[in-house]
Amino acid sequence: IINAEETSNSVTSESSQEESMTEETSQETEIYDYQTMENLDMVPLEYSEYESLEEIVYELMAKYSLDVSQVGLAYTNLHTEESFYLNEDEQMIVASMYKVPMVAMFIDLINQGYLSWDSELPYSEEYYQDGAGEITANPKQAYYRLDDLAYQAIVYSDNTASLILYYYYVNNFGSFRTGFQDFVDYYDVPEVYFYDNYGSAHMMNLSL
Fold first, then answer.
1. Does the pLDDT of residue 115 top 80, yes or no?
2. Whole-prediction pTM value?
3. What does each C-alpha distance from 167 to 128, 171, 176, 182 come to in angstroms?
4. What is the DSSP letter of 6?
């Protein structure tokens, strides 16, 4: 009887785990936040109605009256190997997009053994910058774990978390500008790249 109950519990547990995994898989593959889209009066694109990704891009740019010369885009589908590029090598101010290659560079440093996700990085008042994220919003600490900083920088675009990462890199590993180039192995950039928050869609794509 005990064995039978244990077996029954085991089967029930396995069944529950399978249902949980199915739900998680379903959530992970869902790319649309339908509630938010409804609130914004948006509808999902019907990809089958388009012949190519290029058609979708140009239709959207026309819809929102975007100047094509002001858009840099690099897209790669890792499942189908489909790709699309538009002004991909043009250097533009990348704003918060710099946080993506920066965190990738820290992951590389972890893989090389220089740091770990548990490494603690120091905070200074000069690193504070207003915006979203828990590190920006909450009382400040002397040190923050690297995994928390990376999470806040990518998920919430936390400016303070990102600047802690940025200055730690600069103070310990040198120029972020040249470090980014070395990381993506791309050096064909104009001089202006070194004097502001510039980057290209191609360099961003390489960092992924």
1. yes
2. 0.75
3. 12, 6, 9, 18
4. H
